[in-house]
């Protein structure tokens, strides 16, 4: 049942699905249960309460939907908007592209603000649009916090600032798929109306749970939003929340127990420490890339991502070959370059339940692969650069002091 | 992490989620993998090929959607129909009711044919509707093969017969959630256009995969169907099937390996043997109910269900109390009576990876509970009736002969 | 990898290895760890403290030895006795026979007191031996608390009483393999010097840990005992206990975490409740046997065992055939008759993490098998008798009230 | 239940217990079974047949004993020798020391040949002893193939050569605990009479199975050997082998299925490829040590070990501090220096189911730790040296070509 066995551990460095920690695998290693018995609502109650902490919201209402990130997007849009609504959306890479495609197919009037891939959302354009939209035709701003295809993190605080500056009432919808629980994310402080992530990203669970969190303003909007929805309709969830049974349809028992375990681990480490760990891993990766003499796809320091690094390869090298060799020779998975940057970048995911020595093993592997494809890398150079930084910055493990 | 521990095994007799066999739990006990590496498409290919066997189709195209049965319903409807389309739908219990609610919310023109709960779909009414619909305004017939709330199995062959008799081109959409892989189901032979089930039912997996199978006619219809859909859109799947990468968004790696194991077990037992086993368990359950002097909610033999039995309790007894005691005293889960039959029936699910001694343990438990709530049952009477039948009908286990 | 797959759960009713509860399976689902890191000693410390509770000792010292019950026997004998030492040992069934065989091969002078199989240890003979042994040539009394082959429980309190009556200093060595943590067992109160069990019995773990507990008197004896031993030598353990690293050689990390989980479950249920549950299951089983018109191998009520029932079959039936059919047709495992009672009895194990409906499923199965082999049982009769008792005696599950 | 949680994977680089591959963890994730049903003997039969392959023997008889390496030693000695027998044994490190301690406590007349720790067995002394032992008073040669404490591999072919040269009939007993299934090992070709290993070493299983293989000559010797033994007595195993039930007492069901999976993985990779992989990892580690400017505890190239490298630290550094920091800061486990080399060496285990990027992660970690303790290592230097070698030598993964 393992189609392509290789000795030793798989080195999983795609930006999702990410490594699941052993305690979470254990928690999910179980038979089904009746989700209508008192046990599951009791468990669900703690999950809904605790999951708000990773969004940093106290007023939001979370939904744990049996779906993927794509479904979470659909849930965010259809519950808050009506067909024909104008939304401003930023195209900066493959995942924002896919979300925009969804927005268009759901019949919204999408005002696309495009940036070169490798650059962040053009907030100057947003500002001018907000400035000129005195009649408030813009119903929502849709933005990907961290574009997984290019390793670009957008400045959400700035978006909120602009909305406030122009006293614009547009809803603020954020894809936090590769950011929430890994990058600094503040739903309440930044006035985000819908934020969403997927279980297989920083939460380090299997795929299958789209986690969507709605602000009171978003919930209010959902009462009049005319987009057709049933499976993704928050109304059904809210009805069952009211009844205390929580589930309009059958949840995955395993993912619920898994989420409980995942949250417990995050709180044990401390959410702030989790975020600092991602900063450390991101920084170390970028130092390695620099030492290799390669360029980060992200064009400016302000946009660098602490969850994924897209590395630009020289023009004579096919980045897909790097990904292929990683898998065929080193039992490692790297991310492909997608769409416009296909063949031009490969991606190192460094999010989720991951530590420094895992990353250094990956970086050592990338060095050998670069050599394999003919790039004149100095072996050990990236590891040395990353180590020099890490050795100064890794804290003691609190439970072991 | 076990909120309500009790010694010994949980006796799970709700009609889903059902018991997961150990080999399937094992197969899913794993870390995430990169779904874009060659391993997952190779695995997916075998799954798509093999899953067709449980639908008994060679021409259908299956979709393994990260969703629940509710999402599978939505996938079936939105891919084949346009808003305003007239559909004939049968209301015979809570699950057909919920599907009809979805059909209405998706803006179809639903022609509801209601039966008393406990009776099957009224096919006489269907016949008259088909007979009078010479202009073919009816675009689809929607029917639940097995109504899980009342334990009623509808006659799908008869529906096909009627459609053929009147040479009616309506699409034939079937909810096989609590039937496929347990009851006799023949997608091709019965000319079903969309059939669907959920992973947590007869396949005995965790919740999280909606399995939808579309006939060539349904696929053709999907090209012109105007219902808005993105997450559930077959088009995206078909595009990735074409490319050989199979997944428009991230699947659950664990469920894929779990499905592989589940199908392997089913084929090892033999699909026909699986169906015969369900017949045996269903019959044994009904004999026990009769021995207890209680009535089956299903009003006629032609509709009895081999996957769930809804037992009518005497008017002075609250069936919810039976379910509560099962859980609180016997570590057993029975199904509640829902909606119109709330308090009036309790349900014994007997589907999925289940054997005779497990069922007899359940029946012995029900007897004690009936005594607990004051019903004058003769202890051992149901077990005796069921055993008498089973002892004559259980075959030797092929792998152990 | 499942050599003889059958649908549904395996019904495991041998008196060990027994069913492992899910939380314990989960706790053991893990990678290896370095047993010399601080984590394992910290875990071991809690285990050694807590395991004493199931022996009901405060002064004893436990050893968690990577071995089976046979190894635990050897540990008990070789650490406390010297070759040629006279010991009184009771032969009442296959397991006491095997222990006596070991005692003889270890070169002790074994004074065997034999009883008919189905009867308990002959304590009258013990009394006369003690009475006449004024020079204290008897160095140890070896007794099996519960003879697993015949379902006979010996009266340990009485043994202690006799030793006290005659102020005899013999060591009191007890095989508690199928009793400790299931039957009433009081190491300190009964002045037991070495008590032992195996992980795969009432603790409901996998095989692989022999748990031996030594009284201060036994530890004192170990200082002068001349039996040759290395692997089983307590001295090595005590040296590492002293150092706080606990392990003279590598333990099974998985079994340590498993034992932690198993003890947690036992304490959550309450040790006294665990014992009462075993009484309830034992009584129910005996009532069923009686209802079937069959005889218990145990000849007197005072010896009946609450962990295993050996059922005598009529002379024209081969009990091995019953065991074979259980496995081949019903996916159930019953215990064979061993040695003198081979072909004459089959055994129902009812120990470990087990509940009432599981047992009733087993009893229903036995009824069908009895019919299969031609015994004129009334189907349902045993289940009815057991249910009638159980329905009056099962308490509510504390965590669910 | 995780006493000392740290984010990311644990980097386990002690020379046992080693990392368990996921397919093996999965295979062991199961309930108990009746070991007397036909399934377990059928499984055992394949294991006994296949386990001989990793010893490279066709004439040997293997025993899968529920014990540790220490118990396997005892089994090897007590089954073949009698008290007072003269044996020649080589003291070259902590594990050979412990085996010699056992030999002495078992009352053999041990002729200890000591070498400086870091050197191999002194075969010149062996030669002179054999030469002078014309009356064949030496009954056995006991040698550790790979001394885990110092990373020294002895030359077994040479030992055989000497025995042959002097036509000496002494039994040849080999501890292959950290060699078999990782280093080149040829039981039949080298005329080894008893070879043994433990499950938690190169087989990459949990601890709990001592695997002992006896040559026909050893089996013959066991018929007259007078050492007292019961639990470890081969005779009992042979009796049950004869009967086809295989087990004189209860085995761990989980370890049996685990061993099946472990062997399957080894055969899939190819035993020769497994050995080559260990050579590659060993060589890479030694190159790193050299690049760091540190010395290998092993004093000559002929003795270097491909499963463990003991690294000598400068006199001003306490090697235990390196091990402590590994655990407290980097979530890595390294091996301590033991006894004579305590504080002076730390050990990197590189055996079992392990790959190159895992090792490079470890080496990168060691570099940072060396820096932490004040050793002036050039970060990246060891990784560079190891990578340069590995990049030239890692083959493509056969299943992925």
TrEMBL record, chains A, B, C, D:
Pfam families: Aminotran_5. One of its GO terms (molecular function) is L-serine-pyruvate transaminase activity. Substrate binds at residue 347. One of its GO terms (biological process) is glycine biosynthetic process, by transamination of glyoxylate. Keywords: Aminotransferase, Pyridoxal phosphate, Transferase. Its EC number is 2.6.1.44. It comes from the Eukaryota. Its cofactor is pyridoxal 5'-phosphate. CDD domains: AGAT_like. PANTHER family: ALANINE--GLYOXYLATE AMINOTRANSFERASE 1, AMINOTRANSFERASE CLASS V. This is alanine--glyoxylate transaminase. The lineage of its organism: Eukaryota, Viridiplantae, Streptophyta, Embryophyta, Tracheophyta.
């Amino acid at each position: 049942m393992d189609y392509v066995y290789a000795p030793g551990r798989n080195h999983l460095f795609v930006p999702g699905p990410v490594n699941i920690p052993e305690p979470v695998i254990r928690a999910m290693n179980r038979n089904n249960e009746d989700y209508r018995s008192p046990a599951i609502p009791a468990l669900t109650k703690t999950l809904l309460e605790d999951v708000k902490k990773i969004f940093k919201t106290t007023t939001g209402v979370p939904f744990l939907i049996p779906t993927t990130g794509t479904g979470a997007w659909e849930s965010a849009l259809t519950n808050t908007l009506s067909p024909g609504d104008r939304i401003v959306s930023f195209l900066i890479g493959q995942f924002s592209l896919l979300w925009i495609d969804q927005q268009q197919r759901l019949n919204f009037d999408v005002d696309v603000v495009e940036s070169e891939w490798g650059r962040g959302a053009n907030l100057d354009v947003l500002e001018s649009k907000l400035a000129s939209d005195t009649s408030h035709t813009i119903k929502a701003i849709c933005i990907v916090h961290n574009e997984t295809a290019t390793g670009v993190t957008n400045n959400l605080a700035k978006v909120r600032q602009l909305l406030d500056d122009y006293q614009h009432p547009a809803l603020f919808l954020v894809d936090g798929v590769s950011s929430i629980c890994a990058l600094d994310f503040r739903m309440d402080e930044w006035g985000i109306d819908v934020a969403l992530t997927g279980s297989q990203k920083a939460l380090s669970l299997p795929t299958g749970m789209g986690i969507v969190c709605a602000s009171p303003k978003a919930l209010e909007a959902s009462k009049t939003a005319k987009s057709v929805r049933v499976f993704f309709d928050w109304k059904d969830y809210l009805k069952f929340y009211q009844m205390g049974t929580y589930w309009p349809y059958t949840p995955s028992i395993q993912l619920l127990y898994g989420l409980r375990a995942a949250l417990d681990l995050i709180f044990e480490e401390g959410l702030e420490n989790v975020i600092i760990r991602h900063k450390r891993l991101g920084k170390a990766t970028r130092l390695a890339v620099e030492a290799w003499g390669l360029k980060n796809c992200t064009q400016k320091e302000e946009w660098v991502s602490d969850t994924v690094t897209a590395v630009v390869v020289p023009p004579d090298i096919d980045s897909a070959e790097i990904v292929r060799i990683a898998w065929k020779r080193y039992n490692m998975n790297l991310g492909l370059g997608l769409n416009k940057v296909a063949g031009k970048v490969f991606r190192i995911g460094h999010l989720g339940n991951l530590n420094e020595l895992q990353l250094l093993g990956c970086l050592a592997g990338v060095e050998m692969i670069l050599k394999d494809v003919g790039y004149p890398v100095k072996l050990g150079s990236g590891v040395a650069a990353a180590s020099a930084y890490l050795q100064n910055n890794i804290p003691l493990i609190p439970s072991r002091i």
